[in-house]
Design brief:
It is a single chain. The strands form 3 sheets. The protein has a 3-stranded antiparallel beta sheet. The chain has 6 helices and 9 strands. The longest helix is centred in the N-terminal third of the chain and has 17 residues. The protein has 2 domains: 76 residues, Arc Repressor Mutant, subunit A (Orthogonal Bundle), CATH 1.10.10.970; 82 residues, ADP-ribosylation fold, CATH 3.20.170.30. With 181 residues, it is an alpha+beta fold. The chain is elongated, with a radius of gyration of 17 Å. Strand 7 and strand 8 form a beta hairpin. The chain binds ligand HQG. The site of ligand HQG has 17 residues, from helix 4. InterPro entries: Ptrans_KptA/Tpt1 (IPR002745), RNA_2'-PTrans_C (IPR042081), RNA_2'-PTrans_KptA (IPR022928), RNA_2'-PTrans_N (IPR042080).
Length: 181
């Protein structure tokens, strides 16, 4: 599969596995899974015929490893980024001392007052490295990177999870744990 098509399929998977499963008539389990056969049939009906091997190619070739099969390989889900109501049931994890969040300057005054909120997603997305945060912020303009005192947050009782593709997730980051890099 060429790269362009791989990206096109990946965007469709993001849409239906994170935000709008109903658009192609599928239902996710409470922890976000759907049977591979059910997904492929729904995509085919929606004008995107795909074999199991091609789906595996998209999952493996995805730049951010956004999707994962379950252990048996019979189900697939998005590893993070949902807006639909799913509970990925990820175990709690101890974060590194600091984590990073990429944003843009127009959000800074709100963030300074109320901290980081999950907005339309389930959790605030943080990364363990500055470069990723810069890329995430850069989707919206000139990136501004915020440093999150994750160890202090954890000590204060805030919970963290890490997704299968290495994104750090937490419910919210109060302003006192944020600094501009
Ligand atoms: C901002 C992509 C005002 C926040 C990326 C961000 C990531 C606030 C935006 C993943 C705010 C939400 C997530 C507040 C936060 N007031 N603005 N209190 N708190 N914001 O897309 O972190 O390609 O939901 O700074 O690479 O940008 O989808 O979150 O700018 O990993 O796999 O509100 O999405 O991954 O935007 O990105 P998003 P995000 P995928």
């Amino acid at each position: 599969m060429d790269k362009k098509h791989l990206i096109r399929v990946s965007k469709r998977l993001s849409r239906h596995l994170r935000h709008a499963p109903g658009d192609i008539g599928i239902t996710l389990t409470s922890d976000g899974w759907v049977e591979v056969g059910t997904l492929l049939a729904a995509l085919r009906r929606d004008g995107l015929p795909l074999t199991r091997n091609q789906l595996a190619e998209v999952v493996e070739g995805n730049d951010k490893q956004r999707f994962a099969f379950d252990e048996s390989g019979s189900r697939i889900r998005a590893s993070q980024g949902h807006s639909v109501d799913v509970d990925l049931a990820l175990p709690g994890a101890t974060p590194p001392g600091v984590l990073y969040h990429g944003t843009v300057s127009r959000f800074l005054s709100a963030i300074t007052h109320e901290g980081l909120r999950p907005m339309s997603r389930h959790a605030v997305h943080l990364s363990a490295n500055v470069e990723t945060a810069r890329t995430v912020g850069g989707r919206r303009g000139v990136p501004v990177v915020l440093l999150v005192d994750a160890a202090d947050m954890a000590a204060a009782g805030h919970e963290f999870q890490v997704s299968a593709n290495g994104v750090w997730l937490t419910a919210a980051v109060p302003p006192e744990f944020l600094r501009r890099l």
